[in-house]
Amino acid sequence: MPETQDPRQNHLLAALPVEDRERLFPKLEETPMPLGHVLYESGAQMRHIYFPTTAIVSLLYVMEDGASAEIAVVGNEGVVGVSLFMGGETTPSRAVVQSAGLAYRLPGQLLKDEFLRAGPMQRLLLRYTQALITQMAQTAVCNRHHSLDQQFCRWLLLSLDRLPTNELVMTQELIANMLGVRREGVTEAAGNVQRAGLIEYRRGHIAVLDRAGLEARTCECYAVVKKEFDRLLPYTD
Amino acid sequence: MPETQDPRQNHLLAALPVEDRERLFPKLEETPMPLGHVLYESGAQMRHIYFPTTAIVSLLYVMEDGASAEIAVVGNEGVVGVSLFMGGETTPSRAVVQSAGLAYRLPGQLLKDEFLRAGPMQRLLLRYTQALITQMAQTAVCNRHHSLDQQFCRWLLLSLDRLPTNELVMTQELIANMLGVRREGVTEAAGNVQRAGLIEYRRGHIAVLDRAGLEARTCECYAVVKKEFDRLLPYTD
DNA sequence: CGGGTTCTGTTCGACACCGCACAGATCTTC
DNA sequence: GAAGATCTGTGCGGTGTCGAACAGAACCCG
Per-residue pLDDT tens for B15-42? Predict the structure, then answer.
C-alpha cells in the first residue's frame, strides 16, 4: 500500500509530458471519494473535472419513476466530466462513486483553459471520450441482447479492471441499481457464477477467483470495450 | 421542393459563420446516399466525414452471431464519423444509410485540419458529439427498461425529426434490425400503434398521422434526447 | 394478367426477467 | 452476547420477448 498518493496513478495524467505535468499538477486538488458520493447531479452545472486514481465512478441515468441504469463506469483510466470540455457543461446523467477511493480534481475553468491549448491534454481527453462512447454504445447493445449472467460478468470485469485488488465492496442491491435489474436477479446471477467457482461472495464483498473464467462466461461486449480502450489509450505501468 | 441542393440543409454547416463557409463549402463533395449503403464498416479506416442533408444514417453494432442493434441515428442535424476528429480514426460500429437521400462529405484530412483551427467548426463538432453521447446513453437506458411499443415510437420520432416529410420508407424487417428485436415484434408494435390511429402502415411505408400521440405513447427517452439536442445545437430555419 | 417474390400477420410453446412476499443469514452495536 | 439492522436466498404467478412455422396480402415483372 503506497503511503503517498500520486496523480500519476491516473493514466491520463500519467501520459502527459513532463512539461505539461509541471504546469498542471500543482493545480490539482486531492479529493477523497466516499462510497455513494454524488459528483454531479443530472443537469447540474459541473464545477470540477475529476481524475480518479483509486476510486471508481458510475455514470447513471435515473428515470422519472426512480429506476436507474448505468451508462458507463470510470476509473483511473479516465476522467469524469467530459461535458465540460465538450462544451455542454451539463449532462442528463448522474455521476456517483461506486467504489470508494481518491481522485484529483481540477476546477472547470482551468480544465477548459488547458483544453484550449490544443496540446497533449486535449488529445488525451478526446481519445478518452471516444473510448467512453464505445463503452456506452456497447452497454446499449448488451442491454438489448445479452443475459443477466453475461452482463453481470461484464460489469464485474469492467470494475475489476479499474481496481488494484481482486475484491470489490458492493451489495447486490447496488449492483442491481447499476445494471438496472431486480436485486433478486443479481442474487441468482451471482449464485450461478459462484457455483461455477469464478467468484467468492460474502455479504457485500466479491472476490474474483478466476478471471479467465469470467471472461469466458461474459459476452463479446467486454472484449470490444477493453480492446478499444487499449487501442485508444495505450498505457504501460 | 428545392431543385438545388445546398449544404446549409445540414444544420452544422448552416451554423458556420460566412467566413468559414466560404473556406469549407468549395471542398465539400455532394454525395448520393442510397438505402442500405454502408459508409463505414466496423473497425475500418474512415476516409471521409459525412454531413447528411436529406439522408438518414444509422450507427449499428453488429454482433458476432449476426444480430444487430442501433446505437444512434444521424440526420441533417449532425455528422457521421466523429472518430475522425476524436482521434480514434475507427469505431467498432457500422454506419448504414437508413433512409436514402443526400450528404456532403469532406475528406478526413481536410476535416482534421479544420478541427485543428479551433474555430466555430470545432466547437460545433464537439457539441454535436456530446449530443450524440446523450443519444447513445439514452438508447442504453431505453433498451433496458422500456417496452417494444415505446421503443418503436421513440425510433419513429427520432427518424421523423430528421426527415422533411411525415412518411418513411422502411420495412418491418429493417426496423427490427435497428431495434435489435424480431420482425414479428415490430409487426405487433406497429399494429398496436396503427390501431391507436397514430400511424398508417402499408408495406414498407409508414405515414405518421398523429405526432403528439406518438410522443405521448413513447417513453421519456425521446424527450431527453430531443431536449439535449436543442440545448446543445440551437437551430432556426 | 399471372407467377413469383417480398413483406406482413398470426399462432404456439419456451424462457428470462419482473414484482412481491417472506425466511434465513450475516454483520453491527451496545 | 443479545437485539437490531442489513443483506441474501427462495418461491410464486405474471408478462413480454423469443424462436419457429406458416398463411395471407401486396407488390413487381414478364
Answer: 999 999 999 999 999 999 999 999 999 9
Q: How far is CA B116 from the centre of its chain?
A: 25
B76–chain A Cβ distance below 8 A for any pair? no
- Residue A86: strand, helix, or coil: helix
Which nucleotide is closest, CA of A185 to its C1'?
C17
Q: What is the spatial distance between Cα A236 and Cα B105, in angstroms, rounded to a whole number?
A: 38
- Give yes or no for a contact between B85 and B130, defined as CB atoms under 8 angstroms apart: no
pLDDT band (50, 70, 90) for residue A1: very low
Q: In this structure, what DSSP letter does residue B80 have? A: B
pLDDT in tens, B193-204: 999 999 999 899
Task: Tell me the C-alpha distance between A79 and A111, whole Å.
Answer: 11
Question: How far apart, in Å, are the Cα atoms of B49 and each of A228, B40, B84?
Answer: 21, 10, 7
Tell me the pLDDT tens digit for each residue of A63-72: 999 999 999 9
How far does the CA of B53 sit from the C1' of C17, in Å? 42
Closest alpha carbon within chain A to B230: A88
Could you tell me where the DSSP H helices lie in B103-210? 108-116, 120-145, 148-160, 172-179, 183-195
Classify residue A184 by burial, with Cβ atoms within 10 Å: 0-12, 13-18, 19+.
exposed
Contact of B166 with B206, CB cutoff 8 Å: no
Residue labelled with grid coordinates 464483498: A205
Please give the sequence-ordered ranges of beta strands (E in DSSP) within chain A, or none if there are none.
Answer: 29-33, 38-40, 48-52, 56-62, 68-74, 94-99, 101-107, 167-169, 199-202, 205-208
Taking the mean position of all CA atoms in its chain, how far away is CA B206? Answer: 18
The residue type at A124: L
Residues 93-112 (A) with a CB less than 8 A from some CB of B: 93
pLDDT confidence of residue A236: 66
Q: Mutation test of the interface with chain B: which of A141, A178, A229, choosing the one with the most B Cβ atoms within 10 A?
A: A141
Assess contact for A181 and A161: CB atoms under 8 A.
no
Instruction: Enter the pTM of the model.
Output: 0.96
Note whether A69 contacts B145, CB cutoff 8 Å. yes
Say what the pLDDT of residue B235 is: 76
Kind and range of the H or E element at A54? none
Q: State how far the Cα of A172 lies from the Cα of A185, in Å rounded to an integer.
A: 9
Is there a contact between B69 and A141 if contact means CB atoms under 8 Å apart? yes
Which one, of A100, A226, A106, A224, lies nearest residue A164 by Cα?
Answer: A100
**Cα–Cα distance measured from residue A172 to residue A36, given in angstroms and rounded to the nearest whole number:** 14
